[in-house]
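Task: sequence in, structure out. Protein: histidine kinase.
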Amino acid sequence: MTTVTNASKGTILIIDDEKVILDLTSIVLSNRGYTVYTAPDAMVGLEELEEHHPSLVLLDYMMPVMDGFTALKQIRQRFPDTYVIMFTGKGNEEIAVELMKAGASDYILKPFNNQDLVERIESVLRIRAVELRNRELMAERDKLLAEIAEWNRELEERVREKTEALQKAQAEIVQSEKLASLGYLSAGMAHEIRNPLNSINLFAQLLKSGCEEPEKLDYIDKILKEVDRIDDIMRKLLDASKRPRFQLSEVRLDRVIDATLEVFRPQTTLYGIEVVRAFRRVPPPFQADPSEIEQIFTNLFLNAIHEMQEGGTLAVLLDHDDREVIIRISDTGRGMPPDNVKKIFDPFFTTKTSGSGLGLAVVLRIVKTYQGKITVEKSDETGTTFAIRLPLLPS
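Result:
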C-alpha cells in the first residue's frame, strides 16, 4: 500500500492487483495534484476507504479474493459519496451496462492512455461535485421547508391562542353587559313588582284573619306562599345583578368550604356521594363578605349534588401560588352539552325542571366582585369541573 501526497486537488484510491498499474497510475495522478492511496486487493481497499473516505476509487474489475463487481456494490452501499471508475480488460457492452447499473460512474478499458485517464477522472469529479452540491442544496431546501412548516405551525398555534383569548374576552364582556342590563331591569322591576306584591300580601293576611272556612284558608295560604316565591325570585334577581348590603371581615376559604359541606352532609349521605377534600395549600385569610363567599359554594355544591342523585364523587381542590387562589369543584355526574356550557352563567338559564336559573349568575357576579374568574374547565360524560381563580392579595 503506497500513499503519495501533493498539494491536493482531491483524494483518489486505486485498487488493483497489478503493481505496475498501481505505481504508474499513482505517479500520473500525484503529478496532476491529487492525493493518492493504493490497495492491492478489494479487502485492503475497503479498509482504506473506511480510513480515508476518498472522493474517487479506480477499481479493477478482475481481482482475486473479491472481484471488482462485488467490491463496487459494497462501495456504493457503504460509501455513497465516493464515486467509482472501473478498470476492465473486457470491453463488451453487457459488462459496461452491468457496471453502470451497479453504480459505476465510468469505466476505462485497459490498457489506457494517461491523458484520457486524467480527463475521465476530472469529468467524474466535476459531476460528483455538482451532484454533491445539489444534494446539499436539496437537504438545505428540505431543512428550510421544515423550518417554514414549523413557523407556520407556531403561527397557527399563536393565532389559535389569540383567537381563544379574544373569544374568552368577548364572552366576558358579553357576560358583564348581560349583568349590567339585568341590573337596570331588576332595579325597575323590584320597585314596580314589590309595591303591588306587598298589597297582595297585606290583603291576603286581612282575608285570612277574618276567614274560618278551611278550604278558603288553604287558598289564602297558597296565595301567601306564591307571594313569598315571587319575592324570593326578585331577591335572587337583585343578587345576581348588583351587590346587596355587605359586611367585610376576615374569611378563611378552607373553613367556609368545610362549613358549607357540613350543611350538605345529609344530602350527600342520602345519595351516597363521596366527598373528597384536597386542600393542597390553604391560602391566607382575606377580606370578604362571608355570606357572599358561602353563596358561591352553596350554589355549586347544589348543582353537583343534583347531578349525582344516584351516587358519585364531589371533589373540592383548594390551592394557591404567589398570584392567585385556585378552587376546583368537580362532580361525576352526566356533564353538560357544549351548547349548555356556553350559556351556563346566563341569568334564567336552567336545565332543571324547577329553579330560577339565577344561581350561577349570582356566583359569577360574586366572583367578579372579588376580581376573580370562574370557568367550566371540563364537562363530559365523566362529570363537570368548575374552576374559580381569585387574586391573592398581599397580606
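The chain has eleven helices and 13 strands.
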